[in-house]
Amino acid sequence: MFSLKNKTALVTGGASGIGAAIAETFAQAGATVWVADRNEKDGRAFAERIGGKFISIDVASEADCEKAAQTVGALDILANVAGIGHVGTLLNTTAVDLDKLYAVNVRGIFNCCKAFAPAMLERKYGSVINMASIGGIVAVRERLAYTTTKFAVVGLTKALALDHSHTGVRFNCICPGRVETPFVMARLNEYPDPQAAYRDMASTQLNGRMAKPEEIAASALYLAADESAMVTGSSLMIDGGWSAGK
């Protein structure tokens, strides 16, 4: 197992789903973990359970991110996981929908990097991990706004890596396919036949199943650890083969 002993990490969207899996994995690897989330009740309880700390952040707020950076101090690892989705084509996606997703999925990452990365750059050490999606590599049907923002996350990550390639700070993103998060599983249970709905959603992935949040967390652990020192500007696809034929 990769060690994060004596390292400090902050995970946005850390109260549930992939963010929680990453926060717990980092804590198990020895890091001091800040769980950052808008959901204070669940976030605080989860942080206590994993032996971490909680901080309330709305990543869409530049002021919130700057205030958090002042409270937390220097980080070794920043995992930008907070994100939202939207189902729709051009015909049923509004400008408001697009702006809402952009504010969280893209500006949220920008705001957190703007707040936390300067201290990393000054120390010449750190790992920034941005949560993109398979929807940032290939277009996903009826996910116009989501796909647009996730392509932006991939581009943002590459630009950050290129601009700061000689600083000792690494910028990478993870591109999951479909994942068995509590949100996804709750949505599946709304269908008349949840098992059939699962098979349909998982069919895009060549191995015929969705990923577990812990599998995404394992890839984040690698990118956070010193063993991945040669990895920057990458888009790590954890998609069950979805993109293999694209």
Q: In short, what is this structure?
A:
The chain is an alpha/beta fold. Helix content is 44%, strand content 15%.
Plain-language structure description:
With 246 residues, the protein is of the alpha/beta class. The chain has helices at 17-28, 40-49, 62-72, 95-105, 107-123, 144-163, 182-188, 194-202, 213-224, and strands at 8-12, 32-37, 53-56, 77-80, 126-131, 169-176, 235-238. Helices cover 44% and strands 15% of the residues. The protein has a seven-stranded parallel sheet, with helices on both faces. Helix 2 links the parallel strand 2 and strand 3. The model has no long low-confidence stretch (mean pLDDT 95).
Low-confidence stretches: none
Instruction: Give the domain tally.
Output: 2
Element order: H for helix, E for strand = EHEHEHEHHEHEHHHE
Largest sheet: 7 strands, parallel
CATH architecture classification name of the largest domain: 3-Layer(aba) Sandwich
The tally of strands reads 7
What value does the Rg take, in angstroms? 17 Å
The backbone outline, from C-alpha atoms, is globular
